[in-house]
Amino acid sequence: MEDQVPAPNAGDYPNLNPSLATFNGLFFSPNSEKSNDIASGKFFFAANAMSAFQNSLVPPANRTPENKQALKSGSVERGAKVFETANCATCHIPPFFTDNKTHPINEIGTNSARAQSRLGLNKLLVEPKLYSFDTTIPVSANAEVLDLPTKGISENSTTLPSGILPNGGYKTTTLRGLYFSAPYLHDGGAAVREGSLKVFRDGRFQVVDLSGLGLTGTLSQALPADPASSLRALLDRSLREKVVGANKLNPALSPEHSNLDGTGHEFYVDSQAGFNPQQQTDLINFLLALDDDPANF
Ligand code: HEC
Fold this sequence. Notes:
The chain is α+β, with helices and mostly antiparallel strands. It has 2 domains: 5-55 and 126-147, no CATH class; 59-100 and 172-289, no CATH class. Helix content is 23%, strand content 9%. The chain is built from 7 helices and 10 strands. It has helices at 45-56, 65-72, 75-85, 105-108, 227-235, 237-248, 277-289, and strands at residues 5-6, 11-12, 15-16, 26-27, 102-104, 129-131, 145-147, 169-171, 197-199, 205-207. Heme C binds at residues 86-88, 90-92, 103, 107-108, 110, 170, 172-173, 175, 178, 181, 184-186, 234, 265, 267, 269, 287.
C-alpha cells in the first residue's frame, strides 16, 4: 500500500475520497526509487503494463469435436445470423462482443443484489483529476494536474455513470471464451449439468434429468456446468424457468444466503420469440466458437 499514490484531489491514505476515475481514491504506481524494483518506471507504468498484459490474454480455442463439426456443417455461420437477427449484437458488439457499458438493472433484469454494490459511492464522489502522464515518482508539489472529462459517462463529474444510477446495473460481459466460462450470468445461475438434456437432430431438446438443473445440480455439488446446456438455459425460457426453479428450491442459494438464482437477461431465442429449434442450436454453436479468431486453430 505504501507504493500507491493518491490521485490529486482525493486526499491522503487512509482518508481518501473516491472519484469517477478512481473508486478507492488510489492510482497504482510503483515507487521508482528502488533500483531492484522490476516495475520501476514513470507514473502509471504499472497500471499501463497490467492493462497491456490483460489485453494480450486470449481465450484458448474450443478444440472439441463438437465445435469442429459445427464449424464444418455451417451451423456456426448460421448461428452468427441468428445472433444478428435476435439483436444480441446491439450490446455484445463484435469483435469483443461487449459495448463496454453498464446497463441499468431495470433493462437487464438479472438478480439485483450485486448491481447495487456501488450505489453508496454516489454521495462520496469528488471531482476526478489526474496527474499528467509525464509525471515522475515521487510526485512533486508542482506536478501538473488535469481535469478528467466525464461528458457522456455521467450526468455530471461527481455522479456515478448513468447506467448504474438510480438502481445499479451490470456491464455487458464479453462473449469470447464462453466455452470455458460456464455457468453464465454474474451469479452463475444459468447452469445445467452435462447429460441433463437430450438434444435431437433437428435441434429440439428434452430434459431427461431434472437433478442436473441449476447451481443445485452443478456447482453446489462441485460438479461442472455444461457450456452448451447452460447456454440453452440462458436462451430458452421454458428451460430457464426450470433452472431458476431448481435454484430457488435450494436454501443455500436463497436471498438470505448467497442470493444466486439465474433470473433475468430475458433476450430469448426460442419458439415464443419466433425462432425454431435449429436456429437456437445454431446460435449456441456460434457462441461456443467465439474466441480470438474463430474457426482458426
Ligand atoms: C441490452 C443489452 C443486451 C442484449 C440485447 C443482450 N445482452 Fe447478453 N448480456 C448483457 C449484460 C449486461 C450481461 C451481464 C448480465 C449479468 O451478468 O447479470 C449479459 C450477459 C450475457 C451472457 C453471459 C456471459 C457470461 O459469461 O456469463 C451471454 C452468454 C449473453 N449475454 C448472450 C447474449 C445473447 C445470445 C443475446 C441475444 C439473444 C444477448 N446476450 C443480448 C447485455 C445484453
